[in-house]
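step=encode ok
step=design start
structure_in=
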């Protein structure tokens, strides 16, 4: 038996006389789902990844235009009690997105893009000392914020979105196949029951 014949037999499209019409219908539906899977899943992955990448690049551009790098001077040694009287640390005070978010809350001051002096808590290395300068990112009002999104994060987000889309497409195809199989099973059982009631009297002699 050739490979093509074995494949046709495995999916139910051979010339087996015992196969019912409904079995062949299910086989053709399975073939259609496989073809759709081979076309739709790669397209879904590509389009989703491309859309996520474009959105990420747009985010980079917007954040570069709206966020400003500044130099903050530490007003106390990291971990000293002086930080207790300052406002809570702002989101993303010291670390870059691509770096770590560890550090000790430390009182600092900086000049924002608005030209005014600001004070708050930044995340500083525990080995830093009062008077030391460190880079921070601020918005147009001078408040601390995250640095602009980096291209590596855009790539990561795009890949993650593409993978999730692919998994979702595979899962959807699986659910459709299960639902179709169950619906056809119900139909098969109904046909079997109808055939039984038709031929059972002949075997048992009951009318």
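sequence_out=
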């Amino acid at each position: 038996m050739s490979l093509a014949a074995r494949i046709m037999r495995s999916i139910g499209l051979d010339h087996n006389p015992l196969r019912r019409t409904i079995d062949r219908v299910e086989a053709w539906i399975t073939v259609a789902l496989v073809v759709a899977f081979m076309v739709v899943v790669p397209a879904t992955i590509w389009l989703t990844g491309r859309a996520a990448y474009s959105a990420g690049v747009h985010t980079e551009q917007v954040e570069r235009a709206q966020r400003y790098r500044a130099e903050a001077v530490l007003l106390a040694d990291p971990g000293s009690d002086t930080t207790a009287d300052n406002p809570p640390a702002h989101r993303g005070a010291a670390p870059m997105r691509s770096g770590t978010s560890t550090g000790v809350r430390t009182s600092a001051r900086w000049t924002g893009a608005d030209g005014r002096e600001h004070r708050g808590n930044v995340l500083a290395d525990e080995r830093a000392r009062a008077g030391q300068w460190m880079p921070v990112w601020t918005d147009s009002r001078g408040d601390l914020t995250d640095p602009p999104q980096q291209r590596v994060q855009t790539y990561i987000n795009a890949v993650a979105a593409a993978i999730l889309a692919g998994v979702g497409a595979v899962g959807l195809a699986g659910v459709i196949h299960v639902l179709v199989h169950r619906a056809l099973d119900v139909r098969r059982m109904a046909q079997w029951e109808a055939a039984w009631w038709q031929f059972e009297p002949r075997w048992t002699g009951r009318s």
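step=design ok
step=annotate ok -> Residues 83-100 have pLDDT under 50 and may be disordered.
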